[in-house]
Amino acid sequence: MSWKQAEYSGWGRALRASGELARPERARHLAAVMAASPSPAIGNRRSYGDACLNSGGKAVDLTRLDRILGFDEDTGLLDVEAGVGIGALADIFAPRGWLPPVMPGTGYATVGGCIANDVHGKNHHNDGTFGAHVESFTLVTPNGEETVRADDALFGVSVAGLGQTGAIRSARIAMKRAKGDVMIVTERRIADWDEHLALLDASEATYTVGWVDATARGAGLGRGILEEGETGSGLVPRPKGAKSVPLDAPGFALSPPVVRLFNEAYWRRVPGNGRTVVKPINDFFFPLDKIRDWNRLYGKTGFHQFQCVVPLDAAGALRAIMEKITRAGIASPLAVLKRMGPGRAGLMSFPMEGYTLAVDFPNRGRAAELVRSLVRDTADAGGRIYLAKDSLAEPETVAAMYPERAAWAKAVATIDPDGQFETDLTRRLKLRAP
Amino acid sequence: MSETWIILGATSSMARAFTRAVAARGDGVLLAGRDLDDIAASTADASARGAPLAEAMAFDARDPETFAPIIDRARALDGPVSVAVFVGSMPPQEAIDADPALVDGTITDSYTGPARFLQAIAPLIEERGAGTVVGVGSVAGDRGRIGNYVYGSAKAGFHTYLAGLRNRLGRSGAHVVTVKPGFVDTAMTWGIEGMFLVAHPDKVAADILTAVKRKRNVIYTPFFWLAIMTIIRHIPEPIFKKLSV
Ligand SMILES: Cc1cc2nc3c(=O)[nH]c(=O)nc-3n(C[C@H](O)[C@H](O)[C@H](O)COP(=O)(O)OP(=O)(O)OC[C@H]3O[C@@H](n4cnc5c(N)ncnc54)[C@H](O)[C@@H]3O)c2cc1C
Ligand SMILES: NC(=O)c1ccc[n+]([C@@H]2O[C@H](COP(=O)([O-])OP(=O)(O)OC[C@H]3O[C@@H](n4cnc5c(N)ncnc54)[C@H](OP(=O)(O)O)[C@@H]3O)[C@@H](O)[C@H]2O)c1
Hints:
- The complex is a heterodimer of chains A (about 425) and B (about 240).
- Chain A has helices at about 25-35, 85-95, 110-115, 125, 155-160, 195-200, 255-270, 280-285, 315-330, 365-380, 395-400, 405-415, 425-430, and strands spanning about 5-10, 15-20, 40, 60, 70, 75-80, 100, 135-140, 145-150, 165-175, 175, 180-190, 205-210, 225-230, 245, 275-280, 290, 305-310, 335-340, 355-360, 385.
- By secondary structure, chain A is α+β, with helices and mostly antiparallel strands.
- Chain A has three domains: about 5-60; about 70-180, Uridine Diphospho-n-acetylenolpyruvylglucosamine Reductase, domain 3; about 180-235 and about 250-400, Vanillyl-alcohol Oxidase, Chain A, domain 3.
- In chain A, a hairpin with a 2-residue loop joins strand 8 and strand 9.
- The two termini of chain A are about 35 Å apart.
- In chain B, helix 1 crosses helix 7 (about 200-215), helix 3 runs parallel beside helix 5 (about 100-130) and helix 5 packs parallel to helix 6.
- Chain B has helices at about 15-25, 35-50, 65-75, 95-100, 100-130, 150-170, 200-215, 225-235, 235-240; strands at about 5-10, 30-35, 55-60, 80-85, 130-135, 175-180, 220.
- In chain B, strands 3-2-1-4-5-6-7 form a seven-stranded parallel sheet, sandwiched between helices.
- Helices cover about 45% and strands about 15% of the residues of chain B.
- Chains A and B meet through strand 5 of A and helix 2 of B.
- Bound molecules: flavin-adenine dinucleotide and NADP nicotinamide-adenine-dinucleotide phosphate.
- NADP nicotinamide-adenine-dinucleotide phosphate (NAP) binds next to helix 1 and helix 5 of chain B.
């Protein structure tokens, strides 16, 4: 198996790596790579920071192991290779009445990446994380292949395990029933913070998400749009092919005035008394995928995403975080606010019952400093930040946020005693320290 | 009565992409190659994506004994039989320089093996009076270059063979598409230095399917390789022989 010297980065492009990549196209080649040079597995690199980077070392790209191995139309049990994208599965199975049980905001995330970060979707309050719907997976380590089932101790170590227990080659997933391949979406304008949380609390929809204008201050703090969706059947125009951003954009593309104008227009797009619309599945779940390589809008220096979750009773602290963000005035469009349920399937899973906020910042000026202070605020509020998005946190803060980290590190050490699956993220945050 | 595609070299990622494209439109597939473990996964994938029939078949371009069972299987199926050839091998030129015996294998894999298979199945295609043969050649076959002229010469031979076969099969209502890819992002090119404008296999597969539908004769994929190769083909030999492109 040949290795290719490459420069690569996560989705945020603020952190980069240079190292060797292998990209096996067959199960046997993956086993051979893992036996000869054990290295972390990576997917489509839709993590923002350094979870999918191994500077100066090797990494194994699993995106070419992307086949559907079997599907039971009666039970909805699906066997797939781990490199398949969530969006590809939605495209294939929604017309037959099934969807991936949990879908992150991009269809390009692979099944392996969804397990290794135990991702959440717009249905987290009802259905928990991705890992909760995984029945088993096949793990490839230097010692060969092993099937891990939901009741095995290793399951909760590998789910949200950031690739530290070896490469997930394939998985069996319980798909979720869908009424059809379109979404019936109700959009409501939200005037302010309190209304935003109240509507999120009251939502009984299967899929719920709040878009929040991270530039609106004062009385308009927290204003946004609540989107509630249900699957349905019907006819909508087929989505057009994705547009792409061919070049890195200049710095002003996402400058504060442009963002404010965009947010204003985005908010006004929804009529004052709301509306119900029918959309293709992808438009609802993966709105940003319509523009390929949109991360280039941030120019060469890239961007950071801050995503935190705080417990329900810390809603006040989250409001203070939101205020700090709006005061700084450097946020990007399309910040997301959501209520999470308690569901988490791994020791290192991000979710906790509470509210989660995700905001992007161009990587320049005071952004890094601001994000670091938001991370501290989150810790003080008893919350945690999402490692799939992070590129700036510090080891001590994160250790406090993830109380099961030490137990996880100990379990991981039995499988990977020499730290061969470490990534830039696990090294930066000392996640594997005893 | 659906069409069935015999895919030779089914383990190639270009072949996988093409298999998905034809499965999605409801064609059946016989996936043929050497690595039957891997092909088993691809047959499952093709079925899940809509192929009414997906079976694995052993095929080794260097072992003509493997040809007849595939042809017999196709004969037992109703409907048009189509063939897409993705087989080929490209040992590094230095390896061939060190061991000239590698010339034989390269030419068998990339030209004579597939040609012998096509020769054997041509009467069945003619009998059915429909169907398409897709032959994947290469831009490398357009001109002999210092870096891979053995492989290039095999592809050139295959191009000429396909042109003749097109002339023959066209008389009975079947069609032959010659495909000349530029650089494609597959296992064959992973880690090779000097690659540029590398296309995704899905792009190549989509181009091939369009060419099949429109009954194109020869395509370059992506299309801009036509321009690049037109220039390269027109460089006079006294100059070309001094270049290392
Ligand atoms: C626009 C956008 C929206 C997003 N929205 C959400 C969201 O709503 N909810 C959410 O939870 N996340 C969200 N994310 C984050 C994304 O879902 C996760 O980062 C996911 O893990 C990315 O999957 P990937 O295949 O790109 O994995 P990568 O980013 O390549 O890798 C992520 C981690 O998984 C490990 N890994 C990957 N594949 C394997 C494998 N086969 N075996 C073992 N380990 C593996 C890697 O080692 C790494 O630690 C979003 C990202 C983007 C870009
Ligand atoms: N990648 C490029 O840039 C590029 C450019 C132009 C043309 N091409 C051509 O495109 C085709 C597909 O190549 P690829 O890039 O996808 O590379 P690849 O993965 O190496 O594919 C080559 C295919 O040929 C098969 N093969 C080789 N020798 C064989 C034999 N003796 N019997 C049976 N099968 C044999 C391989 O099967 P095994 O799995 O059994 O080895 C594999 O399926 C090839 O014809 C190649 O020459 C490629």
